[in-house]
């Protein structure tokens, strides 16, 4: 019997070394074109074309301004860049054994049959070192990944959690500090805490300036000035870097560097994403615990199996998947942020090989955000279980009772409540007997007698709605 044929895509999925390109490939389809080798080549072509067009407008007698048709054609090479173009560049690299030079040669190959461009071909990659192209390309990759994948995913989680915070603002919840029963809160307020943290973390990610340098082999415009000594190359480079796309790069100019851009902004960005991920790890563990307590149920999906041997199980796998992948992401992000700002003298290549894993770090983050979103979408609150735990925890009212006692000068308030409640099963009548015996105003007694664990929530509901 002949073996069943296996499709190329299926074979690729099961043979991929990384689960990002195997098991989870479909979930990362929006990130892969941006952060893959193809995405890196695309941005290199963009940088080379932007520099080339800008040189034509610099006023040099040797390089006249390009015609509108030539400009449109060149920008089309960027706009229409595809996988076949990336493969063609890789084929050139097999000969050059240099990836940036392969991009230069590919661009020049596109000038054939175009005399205007062919005559100016030597201005492709003019006065540039490879790192001028690479660092700007990395900035562009991070720019689109942040705008199109990372921030939208975080925003989606924030909006889901905000809606939950408002929906469950009034649902009283037994709090736990040190794992023990504590002053009640509400479900909405606990979710609101996460929302506020995530919003602040999201703003840190969005606010980091993405930097790029275009200043030559060691950052001094040596080659540039050898060609045109009287030209303001620094101002020119700044214009290319900061002019909005498509004619410029639309990032922030880095005026001081060695051969490589210092990567401090990358460290800030990766640290900011890692801090956001840490908040989500904290939340994933909390919601896992609430599911374990029965405070939340998970909507069932036909055909899914929770355990290979225990048919009743509905495991919180989405939150477990999110937690695991957030941990992997943070391990990589932290290495990137610690390593990248360090370079021996004017340059070594350790940053180059590490930078190729930016997409992996962001990929694990994006995968985790997806899992978190799926998990949140399955949650259903179990108000009965939450109310049952509250009603079995009257000891939490020891705090308001002794606080009111202190207000009216009752001596030993804390100690009296400790004697009645610590380490004991507290019944409503135990507390009510104590309250009736207190020498405090009758109105205060009535207020305390009317209090229940579910009503003792302070400003939790108001704070939840404000998030």
Radius of gyration: 31 Å
Low-confidence stretches: 308-313
Class based on secondary structure composition and strand pairing: mainly alpha
Q: Going across the biggest sheet, name each strand in turn.
A: 1-2
Q: What percent of the residues sit in helical stretches (DSSP H or I)?
A: 55-70%
N-to-C SSE string, H for helix and E for strand:
HHHHHHHHEEHEHHEHEHHHEHHHHHH
Average of the residue pLDDT scores: 94
- CATH class of the largest domain reads Mainly Alpha
**How many domains is the backbone divided into?**
3
Tell me the CATH architecture of the largest domain: Up-down Bundle
* First-to-last CA distance: 64 Å
Q: State the major sheet.
A: 2 strands, antiparallel
Broad shape: elongated
The count of helical stretches stands at 21
Quantity of strands, as a count: 6
What does this structure look like?
The chain has 467 residues and is mainly alpha-helical. The chain folds into three domains: 99 residues, Fumarase/aspartase (N-terminal domain) (Fumarase C, Chain B, domain 1, Orthogonal Bundle), CATH 1.10.275.10; 245 residues, Up-down Bundle (Fumarase C, Chain A, domain 2); 64 residues, Ribonucleotide Reductase Protein R1, domain 1, CATH 1.10.40.30. 61% of the residues lie in helices and 5% in strands. It is built from 21 helices and six strands. The strands form three sheets. The chain has a two-stranded antiparallel sheet. The longest helix is centred in the N-terminal third of the chain and has 38 residues. About 1% of the residues have low confidence. It comes from Xylophilus rhododendri. It catalyses: N(6)-(1,2-dicarboxyethyl)-AMP = fumarate + AMP; (2S)-2-[5-amino-1-(5-phospho-beta-D-ribosyl)imidazole-4-carboxamido]succinate = 5-amino-1-(5-phospho-beta-D-ribosyl)imidazole-4-carboxamide + fumarate. It is an enzyme of class 4 (lyase). InterPro entries: Fumarase/histidase_N, Fumarate_lyase_CS, Fumarate_lyase_fam, Fumarate_lyase_N, L-Aspartase-like, Pur_lyase, PurB_bact, PurB_C. Keywords: Lyase, Purine biosynthesis.
């Amino acid at each position: 019997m002949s073996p069943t044929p296996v499709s190329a895509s299926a074979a690729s999925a099961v043979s991929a070394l990384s689960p990002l390109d195997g098991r989870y490939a479909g979930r990362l389809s929006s990130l892969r074109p941006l952060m893959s080798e193809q995405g890196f080549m695309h941005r290199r072509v963009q940088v080379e074309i932007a520099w080339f067009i800008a040189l034509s407008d610099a006023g040099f007698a040797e390089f006249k301004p390009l015609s509108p048709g030539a400009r449109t054609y060149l920008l089309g090479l960027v706009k229409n860049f595809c996988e076949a173009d990336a493969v063609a560049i890789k084929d050139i690299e097999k000969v050059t054994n240099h990836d940036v030079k392969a991009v230069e040669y590919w661009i020049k190959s596109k000038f054939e049959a175009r005399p205007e461009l062919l005559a100016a071909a030597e201005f492709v990659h003019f006065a540039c070192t490879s790192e001028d192209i690479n660092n700007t390309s990395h900035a562009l990759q991070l720019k689109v990944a942040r705008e199109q994948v990372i921030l939208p995913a975080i925003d989606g989680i924030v909006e889901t959690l905000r809606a939950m915070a408002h929906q469950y603002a009034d649902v009283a919840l037994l709090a736990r500090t040190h794992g023990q029963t504590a002053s009640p809160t509400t479900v909405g307020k606990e979710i609101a805490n996460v929302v506020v943290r995530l919003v602040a973390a999201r703003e840190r990610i969005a606010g980091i300036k993405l930097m790029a340098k275009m200043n030559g082999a060691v950052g001094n415009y040596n080659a540039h000035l050898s060609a045109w000594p009287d030209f303001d190359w620094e101002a020119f480079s700044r214009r290319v870097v900061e002019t909005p796309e498509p004619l410029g790069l639309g990032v922030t100019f880095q005026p001081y560097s060695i051969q490589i851009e210092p990567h401090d902004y990358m460290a800030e960005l990766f640290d900011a994403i890692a801090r956001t991920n840490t908040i989500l790890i904290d939340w994933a563990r909390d919601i896992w615990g609430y599911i374990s307590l029965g405070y939340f149920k998970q909507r069932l999906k036909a055909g899914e199996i929770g355990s290979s041997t225990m048919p009743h199980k509905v495991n919180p796998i989405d939150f477990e998947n999110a937690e695991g992948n957030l941990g992997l992401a943070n391990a990589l992000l932290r290495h990137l942020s610690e390593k990248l700002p360090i370079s021996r003298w004017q340059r070594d290549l350790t940053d180059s090989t590490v930078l190729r894993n930016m997409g992996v770090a962001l990929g694990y983050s994006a995968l985790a955000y997806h899992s978190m979103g799926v998990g949140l979408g399955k949650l259903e609150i179990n108000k009965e279980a939450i109310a049952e735990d509250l009603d079995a925890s009257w000891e939490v009212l020891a705090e308001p009772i002794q606080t009111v006692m202190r207000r009216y000068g009752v001596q030993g308030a804390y100690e009296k409540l400790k004697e009645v409640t610590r380490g004991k099963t507290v019944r409503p009548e135990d507390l009510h007997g104590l309250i009736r015996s207190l020498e405090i105003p009758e109105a205060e007694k009535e207020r305390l007698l009317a209090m229940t664990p579910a009503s003792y929530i302070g400003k939790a509901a108001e704070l939840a709605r404000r998030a």
